[in-house]
């Protein structure tokens, strides 16, 4: 019997005490079975339990073992492609519908944290920082766009104001999102899992789903048990592997790397005195923030196709030192990698495999808030109100060019082109 434990991350080392759930060893019946205990699965389970459904969650490893327990912890609003792109590609009606939900995910997280008393170091405030004049212009447009869709908590910061909140000389301006913020991602997932169980939901760990029988009352099977349900929610995202071949065909797992410094003590004020989280505006972006115990958590870089790199510190540390030369002597205590799921359109993929098997995946690197929205929308759809879920489900999704063999080099080439443009400021 194989057991998969958490990767050696800062988050696993600072996780609050939590239950170790047993493996599924029996045959169960329930209203809804959820595959995967990341934010997508846990948010779905929680919304469904609140609506009175019985729910079983099957997790291949541990709660929050995937991207949800390893990410940058940034509550970034909207989607990985913004509503202006959605309007251009899919029309005003789709943009209006998706735009009406683009700030909902972070509200859901805040409600969850408050309602279930989740200890996850929630802090308000997120910054998008510009490295070139083109990006400064982009931030102004970004502000106007989000305000058009009802955001009332945005502030434009010029170069001097930006340096007051991020002690780095790299940035020419910033957009401060007071509705953004950051969290300890694994503790959020663990808190949500505890909330699921407090409402009677069952979670099994070390229980990988090996097959889904797509019948009127579907059955999902694990090595030692099965669950028959009225509905299935597939929430395995970048770690789903080949369980659902048609989902694997239109998405690509990608790795991104994160490091955590030693606690900075009083020095944190020389780095990020605002305690906001930060992401830059580059195509291949850097993202960073302080943890609850004032370490700098710094992420960046993308590995298309999601190989696990050997020397993570040597990939990310130079980025950290470029942003904060004052931290050249800092010790790195943790370095880890995690996979997110990229789609060609950079928009999430929601849909149905048949009438009663739902899926949500492919947040393309901006998933902390959208996963929480996804859980709410699938619960609405299962209850019979599917208009909002279907607004996402109707987005067309194409496979990556180059097929399974050449999609990685083809996408890396595209990314290289866009990051070159970022470097040149064009
Ligand atoms: C390093 C990193 C940094 C990131 N930073 C940010 C950020 O700062 N802000 C942001 O918005 N987004 C960020 N993201 C993206 C975000 O974390 C993800 O979009 C989000 O967590 C996806 O949640 P999920 O529940 O869909 O998938 P996951 O959290 O990956 O969960 C999927 C779960 O399904 C389980 N599973 C898979 N297959 C099976 C099976 N057959 N049977 C049972 N269980 C199965 C897996 O074990 C896993 O636990 C980051 C991602 C990474 C990797």
Automatic annotation (TrEMBL):
FAD dependent oxidoreductase domain ranges (all copies): 31-380
Matches recorded under SUPFAM superfamilies: FAD/NAD(P)-binding domain (SSF51905)
Keywords on record: Oxidoreductase
GO molecular function terms listed in the Swiss-Prot or TrEMBL record: oxidoreductase activity
Highest taxon listed in the record's lineage: Bacteria
One CC-aspect GO term: cytoplasm
Pfam families: DAO (PF01266)
Gene3D superfamilies: D-Amino Acid Oxidase, subunit A, domain 2, FAD/NAD(P)-binding domain
Name used for this protein in its record: Gamma-glutamylputrescine oxidase
Organism of origin: Permianibacter aggregans
């Amino acid at each position: 019997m194989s057991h998969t434990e958490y990767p050696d991350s800062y988050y696993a080392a600072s996780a609050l005490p939590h239950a170790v759930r047993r493996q599924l060893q029996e045959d169960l019946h329930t209203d809804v079975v959820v595959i995967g205990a990341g934010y997508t699965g846990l948010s779905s389970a929680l919304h469904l339990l609140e609506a009175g459904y019985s729910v079983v969650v099957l997790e291949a490893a541990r709660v929050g073992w995937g991207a949800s327990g390893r990410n940058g912890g940034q509550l970034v609003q909207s989607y990985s492609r913004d509503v202006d792109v959605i309007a251009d590609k899919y029309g005003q009606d789709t943009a209006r519908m998706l735009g009406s939900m683009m700030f909902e995910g972070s509200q859901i997280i805040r409600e969850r944290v408050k309602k279930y008393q989740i200890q996850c170091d929630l802090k308000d405030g997120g910054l998008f920082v510009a490295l070139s004049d083109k990006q400064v212009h982009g931030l102004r447009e970004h502000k106007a766009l989000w305000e058009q869709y009802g955001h009332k908590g945005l502030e434009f910061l010029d170069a001097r104001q930006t340096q007051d909140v991020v002690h780095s000389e790299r940035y020419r301006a910033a957009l401060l999102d007071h509705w953004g913020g950051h969290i300890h991602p694994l503790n959020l997932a663990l808190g949500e899992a505890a909330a699921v169980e407090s409402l009677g939901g069952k979670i099994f760990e070390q229980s990988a789903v090996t097959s889904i029988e797509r019948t009127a009352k579907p059955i999902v099977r694990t090595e030692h048990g099965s669950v028959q349900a009225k509905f299935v929610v597939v929430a395995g995202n970048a770690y789903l592997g080949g369980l659902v071949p048609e989902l694997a065909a239109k998405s690509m797992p990608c790795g991104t790397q994160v490091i955590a410094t030693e606690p900075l003590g009083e020095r944190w004020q020389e780095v990020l005195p605002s305690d906001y989280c930060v992401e830059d505006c580059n195509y291949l972006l850097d993202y960073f923030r302080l943890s609850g115990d004032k370490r700098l958590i710094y992420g960046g870089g993308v590995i298309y196709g999601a190989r696990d790199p050997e020397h993570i510190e040597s990939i990310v540390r130079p980025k950290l030192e470029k942003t904060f030369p004052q931290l050249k002597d800092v010790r790195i205590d943790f370095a880890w990698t995690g996979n997110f799921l990229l789609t060609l359109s950079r928009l999430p993929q929601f849909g149905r495999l048949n009438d009663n098997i739902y899926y949500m995946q492919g947040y393309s690197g901006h998933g902390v808030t959208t996963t929480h929205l996804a859980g709410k929308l699938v619960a609405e759809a299962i209850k019979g109100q599917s208009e909002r879920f279907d607004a996402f489900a109707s987005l067309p999704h194409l496979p990556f060019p180059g097929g399974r063999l050449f999609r990685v080099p083809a996408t890396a080439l595209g990314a290289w082109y866009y990051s070159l443009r970022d470097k040149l400021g064009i």
